[in-house]
Amino acid sequence: MLNPVLAIDGLGKGLAPLDGPWQFHLGDNPAWASPAIDDATGQAGWEQIKAEDPWGAQGHPAYTGFAWYRRHFLIQTSPGASADLALMLLRVDDAYEIYLNGVLIGKNGGFPPHPFFYYPQPAQTYGLGPVRDGVIAIRVWKEPLETFDSDQMGGLYEPPIVGSPTAIASRKAELDYEWLRSVQFTVGLEALYLLVMLISLIAWLRNRTQPVPLWMAAYSFAEAASSFLADMRLPLSYKFILDWLQPMFALQDIALWFLVLYLLRLDANPRLLKWTQILALIRVAMFALDGALSFGNPTAMPWGAPLSPWFAEWSPRCSTALTAATTLEGIFPILMVILVLRKGMNSTRWPVAIAATLSTSIQLTVATSLEWNQYTHWTFGDRLLSPLFTIAGNPFIPQRLAEILLIVAILYAVFRFQQESNDRRVALEQELKSAREMQQLLVPASLPDLPGYAVTSAYRPALEVGGDFFQIIPLPDASTLVVLGDVSGKGLKAAMTVSLIVGAIRTLAEVDARPAAILTGLNRRLHTPRTTGFTTCIALRIDADGHCAVSTAGHPAPFLNGWEIEMEGAFPLGLTENPEYVEKRIRLAVGDNLTLYTDGLLEARNSAGELYGFARLAKLFAGYPTAAAATDAAIAFGQDDDITVLTLKRLPAGVQSTTEISAPALAPA
Questions:
Q1: Core-most of 239, 253, 279, 475, by most CB within 10 Å?
Q2: Can you tell me the distance from the alpha carbon of 504 to that of 524, in angstroms, rounded to the nearest whole number?
Q3: How far apart are CA 271 and CA 293, in angstroms?
Q4: Distance between CA 149 and CA 155 in Å, rounded?
Q5: In a 10 Å sphere around its CB, with 0-12 CB exposed, 13-18 middle and 19+ buried, how is residue 523 labelled?
Q6: Structural contact between residues 462 and 600, judged by C-beta atoms closer than 8 angstroms
Q7: Sheet holding 15-17: strands in order across?
Q8: Does the pLDDT of residue 551 top 90, yes or no?
Q9: Are the C-beta atoms of 603 and 570 separated by less than 8 Å?
Q10: Which helix (H) or strand (E) holds 502?
Q11: CB neighbours (10 Å) of residue 10?
Q12: What is the C-alpha to C-alpha distance for residues 242 and 227, in angstroms, rounded to an integer?
């Protein structure tokens, strides 16, 4: 049976498709490029198929490897036509070579043992010269099917087109222009993603305690990068693009999980947060394993062969298992949304919940259909990838519309999240302002005059508001009550506790100003069933002649002339119901220096993590420093907690008493 010859009469400056039946043969033989071989239908495996459809749809489903197309032609040109002809091939799956009358005139991609090809594949043009008759032979190689490939693939999808070089170039320009028009919206969306990524990254760098901007930046980058790799016709091999698309898809999924987690306020659930982190690690592990499995694909190996038959056999099965696991993981955002719906949700978060559910559902449906297409032949995934409408040449498919809805919802949710964060920040600043105002109760703005003594005090909070306090209260019998303490905790709660203590001290002093009685009375007020903190405190009653009574409630003992006074231990305030506080009596001689302090001085810590400690403390107090000098020494070493120091020095008779207070936290905010 003779092969039909495609006769084209009167070809001028236009174009003509090389359609109709082509001779086709599975396998590979370089001799099939020759115009002299007998390729008659039925001869040695030759058959006829159309160039309009892939060979998988024409009786060779799931076939991969080499195959040849041949077409005999005879072209008659009209007067004035170009002496030369050109050929244009549209989509070919995957790599190919073109022969004209047995001579190689062009190729696209490469064959094993070092195969590569491009995707998406733009039209390619090749010069034929002045030839008018002969045989065009196309050698095609199709890579092994991926899990998401249909078994209906392979070879030519559209017939080649022949015409004058000018007409071919013009048609190629038209196709390129149509493609450029079709990606306008995609390019604009990629630019938006990159802008969002940049803004989010800057926002995160300004405040690294907020995870939402970081995950927003990661999600936007992954969306832009995956779209750029998949849609921009980069001059890179398909394997290279696929290898980079997979981590982008993994990053996109992980970033979406964490965005949904934080935007829907689910991060307060420690178990859900932990599971999100675990699934993220699993997704990274699956990506790494999938990359390792690619070695079982001959197209991924430098020498074009699998590592071993065992690996080649099990690689597709493992890949299928990974596909199933990835599909199941994709349900996670929907499960998070369901969890929120069960517990109730702020109306401002509805858009991101709806959009995440819709986008994830469509993505899962498409992925499931494509991933299992070889086995199920489902087509609903293809329908979801078909355009619903077109605007200015830009197709809009359901999945793309869902992605647009999702990014808009996420941006709105991020905007609302930032607004709520700002509201919380304003509320916190207001709380700190209130605490600063209450700070006036923590440390006196001025000290009363103590006849016969030089008094210095210093207060250095580690934060804006601390928990240290002291009071100096003159008593009716010319003695003075000194109380110094440290409330556990910081901020407004500590300030409120101190205000309670200060008020109680002044009330108790009017009834019984003995140090032990003061501590006992404070403990009664601070010990309640709901007590969660404690307070260390030291109380001192001092007379003008130097007689002192000292009592402590878990507070560091005072130093007298650089030596620590031995004090009997006692529970801090608020821990037990009826603790016993005892008094120790001492007498200050003229020139003696008594120093009271909070443990922030003792626990100052340098950059190496070393504590200030008792040895340095004793050496410091042996020099009789003022309170300000002592606190400055600790701060220079490395402040880690609030520091309060109070010194009392007994003066000789007739010397004017002095007071000095240093409390920079009381400066106007």
A1: 253
A2: 10
A3: 32
A4: 14
A5: buried
A6: yes
A7: 15-17, 161-163, 85-89, 124-129
A8: yes
A9: no
A10: helix 491-511
A11: 12
A12: 12
Question: For tokens 């849609």, what's the residue?
Answer: 231
CA atoms of 316 and 592, how far apart (whole Å) = 88
Closest alpha carbon to 199 in 213, 212, 210, 219: 213
Nearest by Cα to 515 from 533, 537, 539: 539
Residue 52 has pLDDT above 60, yes or no: yes
pLDDT tens-place string over residues 210-257: 888 899 899 999 989 988 888 888 888 888 887 788 888 888 888 888
What's the pLDDT score for residue 389? 85
Q: For the chain, which domains are there?
A: 5-177 (2.60.120.260), 346-441 (no CATH), 443-666 (3.60.40.10)
Could you tell me which residue, 259 or 508, shows the higher pLDDT? 508
Confidence at residue 71, expressed as pLDDT on a 0 to 100 scale: 93
Query: Among 106-115, 349-358, 534-543, where is mean pLDDT lowest?
Result: 349-358
- For 144, other C-beta atoms within 10 Å of its C-beta total 16
Give buried/exposed letters for 359-374 (b at 16+ CB in 10 A, else e).
bbebbbbbbbbbbbbb
Residue 514 near residue 543 (C-beta atoms within 8 A): no
What secondary structure does DSSP assign to 367-404, as a single string? Answer: HHHHHTHHHH---HHHHHTS-SEEETTEEE-HHHHHHH
Judge contact between 223 and 407, C-beta under 8 A.
Answer: yes
Q: What is the pLDDT of residue 304?
A: 39
User: What one-letter code names the amino acid at 164?
Assistant: S
pLDDT higher at 344 or 666: 344
Under 8 Å between Cβ of 93 and 238 = no
Q: With left for phi above 0 and alpha for psi between -120 and 50, is residue 101 left, alpha or beta?
A: left
C-alpha 318/C-alpha 333 separation (Å) is: 25
Helix (H) or strand (E) holding 48: strand 47-50
pLDDT of residue 369: 67
Q: Retrieve residue 400's tokens.
A: 């793309």
Q: Could you read off the pLDDT of 482-537 as tens digits, one per residue?
A: 999 998 876 667 777 888 888 899 999 998 999 999 999 999 989 887 767 889 99
Distance CA 366, CA 585 (A): 85
**Euclidean distance between CA atoms 233 and 104, whole angstroms:** 25
The letter for the amino acid at 205 is: L
- Sequence-ordered alpha helix ranges (H) in 443-513: 491-511
**Which pLDDT belongs to residue 301?**
41
The gap between the terminal CA atoms of the chain, to the nearest Å, is 100
What is the residue type of 93? D
d(CA 366, CA 381): 4
**Whole-number Å distance between alpha carbons of 314 and 343:** 44
